[in-house]
Amino acid sequence: MNFNEKVWQVCRKIPKGKVSTYKEIAKRLKTKAYRAVGNALNKNPYSPIVPCHRVVKSDGTVGGFAKGTRTKIRMLEKEGVRVRKNRIMGFKNLMFKF
User: Fold this and answer.
1) Torsions phi, psi of 61, nearest 5?
2) Which of 28, 40, 81, 87 has the fewest CB atoms inside 10 Å of its own CB, making it the most exposed?
3) Residue stretches of the chain with pLDDT short of 70
């Protein structure tokens, strides 16, 4: 299994209505390659089965998304995650750790 596949496998575990971070996924994979995690998620061919829209930045901001930030926010809000000014509301309470 290559690095991208490992990232997608971990990302699949993030439940609906929760978010995690690039850093948390990297930690789960025992690496500090946070940007590589982001690059893998950007190439995710299994969206939305692999819910890369649930991965945000460590400061609680939304971060990037291959289909655009507005689409990412819409997908999160559809799952009950509130976003205001590109920030996850109640970020600490919604944070999923592996």
Assistant:
1) -85, 160
2) 87
3) none
